[in-house]
Write a structure and sequence with these properties.
This protein is mainly β and 74 residues long. 7% of the residues lie in helices and 43% in strands. The model has no long low-confidence stretch (mean pLDDT 92).
Amino acid sequence: MSSSYDDCLRPHATILRTLGPGLYEAALPNGKPVISHLSRELAAAPPEEIPDGTRVLLEISPFDLDRARIAEIG
């Protein structure tokens, strides 16, 4: 049985700005902005800050390309 994470896109992106606690705007390599939130694992022990310009690994559902989950920082 496959998990929902198996079919997701996993691009690297750059944080553009913080929108709220655990919510960020990130830019994909093609420049498209996506609203991104911390994964459950990162939200359990959230970083104090993710500065603008930080590289992150996103997980994006192929069904909603405007929202993403931040899977890894750095």
